[in-house]
Structure formats: structure tokens, C-alpha cells
Amino acid sequence: MHECFDRGAATFMILGNLCTRGCGFCSVPKGSPHKQEFTLDANEPANVARMAAQMKLRYVVITSVNRDDLPDGGSHHFAETVREVRKALPQARVEVLTPDFCGSLDAVARVLDAGPYVFNHNMETVPRLYRRVRPQANYRQSLEVLRFGKQYRPDILTKSGLMVGLGEESREVEQLLRDLAASSVDVATIGQYLQPTRRNLPVAAYVTPEQFEAYRVYGLSAGFKMVFSGPLVRSSYMADLVNEQASQSGS
User: Fold this and answer.
1) In 10 A of CB 212, how many CB atoms?
2) Coil, strand, or helix at residue 14?
3) What contacts 201, CB < 8 A, 6 or more positions away?
4) By the 8 A CB rule, do 164 and 193 touch?
5) Which residues of the chain have pLDDT under 50?
């Protein structure tokens, strides 16, 4: 946190603190729409913008829980938060890390229309492990979200992240990187999965620094502008520096 804050970068998670999905790697609290546990704070977009302005941020990442209980997946709220932050901090760059919105490309377009600098949606893992790691998601659907993001707004950077150490094979990671590159994704982040609680999936392997470097080199050869690969890499960690480098490489 101190590294990011020192550079004027921070990440905000919106749409509440309960998620409608039960991914095996994630420790965010889960809720049940049937029990009416979910809420939506209409003041959240303005509150996020006010806090970002008070912190004098130059790079703002906005992410969220999944809100499959909402007809629009929370995309209107997401877009409004981007607009409020851009209004409060006109010089800041805004990155969005969105859910898949159940594959709704209208929802994706709604968020992109708010004018983020980077559009990020994480694949998380290889397709063989989706049933265990990301059971309520769909690999091809997530690729389509990313492909559409670049097609709809070719002027912005697109980005995706994945975790290793969940039981994948190196050839599967390489295939995932090829699939992302074929979907016109500009930036890939690769990090070590760490088990957040005893209820989550165990770590299958601790990937060596040499293997992380091999993934980075492979990703660059596949066509990415930037590949950030290492044990402690996370999707929004050092996002400002990663995306600055990617922009420069594409200029």
C-alpha cells in the first residue's frame, strides 16, 4: 500500500462488500440475493471521487464485487463512479477492473463510455481449472468481454491477469497467453496464487522466479505490449507504472 500511495495510486472496490459468486480463490464475503442481503449505496460514486481527490491521486483503479443480482450487473453504478472520479480529478488516469457482467456487452460498453484509460478483466486461470477455481464464470465469455473492449474502444489499453500455482501446466498458461493476445489484449499480469483462508483452494505449487520470467518472455513474444510476471504481482499492483510502460511501448 505504501508503494502505491507514495506514487499517488490507489484501488477502490465498489458495489458493496458482498459478492454473488463463490470463486475458490477469493475471500470476499459471499451473500445470497434470495435473503435480500445486498444493498447499493447511491452516494458511493461521489464518495469515491471525493476520497480520491482528498488523496490527490494521479492513478485510480476501480474494481468491484460481482453483482449478478442486479439487472445491469452494476454497470450503471460502475460507469457513474468513473465519471465522478474523472470530474473530480480531470488529470488522473482511471483503470477499471470489471466483472464479466454475465457476458453483457451492453454493460461493458456502458462502462467504457464513461472514459476509463485502461479496461481490465481478469481471466484468473486456465480453462481446465474453471470449474474448481471460477465455477460461475465462462472462459470464452471472459475472452469475448476483453475482445469487445478493444474493438469498442481501440484507443484504450486492455489488460488481463491470471494466477499460477493452482495446478495448471506451463503449456496451458502459454495457451491462455496466446488466447489473450488473439483477443487484442495489451497487458498481462501473472502472479502466484496464495491461499487467503483455510476455506479457499490450497496452493498446488510455488512457481519459481525462472518460470515467471519464462512466462514474461513468452507473453512478449506472443504480442503483448507489457507482461508483468512475478510471485507478488497482482492485477492492480503497480498498475500505474505497468500501464505507463505499455503506453510507451505502443507509441
Assistant:
1) 20
2) strand
3) 24, 25, 132, 133, 166, 193, 195
4) yes
5) 251
Give which of 189, 114, 121 is closest to 150, Cα–Cα: 121
Query: Cα angle vertex 103, ends 162, 166, to 5°?
Result: 25
Question: What average pLDDT does the structure give for the chain?
Answer: 92
Residue type, position 235, single letter: S
Strand order from edge to edge, sheet including 93-97: 9-14, 59-64, 93-97, 118-120, 157-164, 187-192, 226-229
Burial classification of residue 101, based on how many CB atoms lie within 10 Å of its CB (0-12 exposed, 13-18 middle, 19 or more buried): buried
What's the pLDDT at 241?
Answer: 67
Cα(220)–Cα(157) distance, integer angstroms: 16
User: What's the CA gap between 175 and 165, in Å, rounded?
Assistant: 16
Q: Which of 51, 38, 44 is nearest to 76 (CA)?
A: 44
Which own/partner contact pairs does 84-91 have at CB distance under 8 Å and 24+ positions apart? 84/45, 84/46, 84/48, 84/49, 85/45, 85/48, 85/49, 85/52, 85/60, 86/114, 86/115, 87/49, 88/49, 88/50, 88/52, 88/53, 89/49, 89/52, 89/53, 89/57, 89/58, 89/60, 91/58
How far apart (Å, rounded) are the C-alpha atoms in residues 230 and 235? 11
* Cell of residue 78, nine digits: 460502475
How do residues 135-179 score in pLDDT, each as one tens digit?
999 999 999 999 999 999 999 999 999 999 999 999 999 999 999
Distance between CA atoms of residues 67 and 33, nearest Å = 9
pTM beyond 0.85, yes or no:
yes
Strand 93-97 and strand 59-64: the pairing is parallel
Q: What are phi and psi of 13, to 5 degrees?
A: -105, 125
The H or E element that residue 160 is part of is strand 157-164
Are the beta carbons of 119 and 157 closer than 8 angstroms? yes
